[in-house]
Design brief:
This protein has helices at about 5-10, 15-40, 40-50, 55-60, 70-80; strands at about 85-95, 100-115, 120-135. Helix 3 packs across helix 4 (about 55-60). The radius of gyration is 21 Å and the shape is flat. The chain has five helices and three strands; from the N terminus they run αααααβββ. A three-stranded antiparallel β-sheet has the order 1-2-3, with no helix packed on it. It has two domains: about 5-80, Orthogonal Bundle (434 Repressor (Amino-terminal Domain)); about 85-135, no CATH class. The longest helix has 24 residues, at about 15-40. The chain is α+β, with helices and mostly antiparallel strands.
Length: about 140
């Protein structure tokens, strides 16, 4: 059972900080998963990135912010995307019962290994849709 103090702290945490902590934790977990899958140590990753092992430890220990550049380098070395930014591809709009309805389709790109050493991006088979409704009056 959480205490009132913990509840108060959670309620007063700014939304951007919550999002940051969640994203950072997800990145660290994913990077560690990829290191295990590929049989790489943090030291070997540091060598590939031409970084000191202590810097990798800081990244993965939450003591240092990732930059987009460092995330791009990590993605390149690990052969997997670490971030996905949905791209709005199409928008369909129609009016029904006095409401303007918009259907947005987002397309995700996924990296696949076509042949060893070749990294190819292809369009994902699944797209995500969301609907937006506004009263036309």
């Amino acid at each position: 059972m959480r205490t009132k103090t913990v509840d108060r702290l959670l309620k007063s945490t700014p939304k951007d900080l919550e999002i940051f902590v969640d994203l950072y934790a997800d990145l660290v977990v994913r990077i560690n998963q990829l290191l295990l899958e590929k049989g790489l140590s943090k030291k070997e990753l540091a060598e590939k990135l031409e970084k000191k092992p202590s810097e990798i430890s800081k990244w993965l220990g939450g003591e240092h912010n990732f930059t987009l550049r460092s995330l791009a380098k990590l993605s390149a070395e690990l052969g997997e995307p670490l971030l996905e930014v949905p791209k709005k591809m199409t928008q369909t709009e129609f009016v029904e019962d006095g409401f303007i309805c918009r259907v947005h389709t987002f397309v995700t790109r996924t990296k696949i290994e076509a042949t060893p050493g070749s990294k190819v991006w292809q369009r994902a088979k699944n797209t995500n849709q969301f609907n937006e409704y506004h009263h036309a009056g």
